[in-house]
Design goal:
The chain has about 350 residues and is of the alpha/beta class. Helix content is about 45%, strand content about 15%. It is built from 12 helices and 8 strands. Helix 1 packs across helix 2, helix 6 crosses helix 8 and helix 9 packs parallel to helix 11.
Length: about 350
């Protein structure tokens, strides 16, 4: 029986494209205080009274455009990643979603049942960058389940890997074949977050979005700063690929409300053709698995916006998904953990 186990943690999806399932998923997701960080009663009013009734039917239609015969692309791809990783490591690998199914409890129970002598579990949040609405909420939700159920094993977490050399290499090599396609520019579209989340995550309380060029000025705050970390990922990948600074840029997608990080992806997709950029490569490195935000928001709606504004060629580079280099990276991290290394764990 294995002494150590692995849980791959991803965002999650509705159980189906039925409006009732999408509604249930959106309520769980948006009622998370780390996603919409306003007082509970106001959050409940906004979510149950305004956002979900309006958004659920539209989201259900969007999910239908990307749904496969096996289900949600994100869940399917996470299962495929689980299987690919399991072929390379001895430790049992389970998966869990922050929202929807399978839950962290399902994953922990599965590992415990199949491995009664389990001593440790490493949870790997599949978020390269730290944000309270992604990495932090996944960690805290898993901790809550762990403590409530009094599991006998020790629980550890892989820290954000936004600048880890092997991850950077896998991301760069995932991009490299697409550089052969005709293009004028590369756009890194990261998932947006409110600026207040950046400030709330600032452990110093006086750096993020308060100091000029704060992401370039060294600070302990960078360990929890999403904005600094996405800038760092982009710079390291482009340096590896020898892409000059004027040939790529960063934008932020999926905004909900005011005060979110800029520039906005949807606005940039309309502006770029007017700036002479007619052939675009675009990727979404906030995600390691393709999902609604990449397959529908970017590769369908984003493409329509870019072409409609005068663009000629729009190519979305897929997420890492089950890229062999990425699977190898995960396998090496697991092997290091199994060998007793604590270098990348929280």
């Amino acid at each position: 029986m294995a002494k150590k186990g692995i849980v791959l943690m991803n965002l999650g999806s509705p159980d189906s494209t039925e409006v009732k399932d999408v509604r249930r998923y959106l309520k769980e997701f948006l009622m998370d205080e780390r996603v919409i960080d306003v007082p509970y009663l106001l959050r409940a009013f906004l979510i149950h009274g305004i956002i979900v009734p309006f958004r659920a039917p539209k989201s259900a239609e969007a999910y239908k455009t990307i749904w496969s015969k096996d289900g949600s692309p994100l869940v399917v791809l996470t299962k495929q990643l689980q299987k690919a990783l399991q072929l390379k490591v001895d430790e049992p690998v389970a998966i869990a979603m922050r929202y929807g199914n399978p839950t962290p409890k399902t994953a922990f129970d599965e590992l415990q049942k199949n491995n009664p002598d389990l001593e440790e579990v490493l949870a790997i949040p599949l978020y390269p960058h730290y944000a309270m609405s992604s990495f932090e909420t996944a960690v805290e939700a898993a901790k809550e389940v762990y403590e409530q159920n009094k599991y006998p094993f020790k629980l550890q977490f892989l820290q954000p890997f936004y600048n880890e050399p092997h991850y950077i290499n896998a991301l760069a090599e995932n991009i490299r074949p697409y550089l052969e396609k005709e293009h004028d520019h590369i756009l890194f579209s990261y998932h947006g977050i409110p600026g207040r989340h950046i400030r709330k995550s600032d452990t110093t309380g006086c750096h993020c979005l308060k100091v000029e060029n704060c992401c370039e000025v060294a600070s302990p705050a960078h360990a929890h700063c999403y904005r600094h970390q996405v800038f760092t990922t982009t710079r390291l990948v482009m340096e590896q690929l020898n892409i000059p600074k004027d040939k790529y840029s960063i934008s932020f997608q999926s905004r909900l409300g005011k005060g979110w990080l800029q520039p906005f992806t949807d606005k940039r997709l309309v502006e770029l053709p007017k700036e002479g950029i007619k052939k675009l490569l675009i990727l979404c490195p906030a995600f390691v698995s393709d999902c609604l935000e990449t397959l529908e928001e970017i590769d369908v709606r984003g493409k329509e916006e870019f072409i409609g504004a005068g663009g000629e060629l729009f190519t979305m580079i897929p997420c890492l998904n089950t890229n062999q280099l990425w699977v190898d990276v995960l396998a090496n991290w697991v092997k290091e953990y199994a060998a007793g290394s604590q270098a990348m764990t929280l």
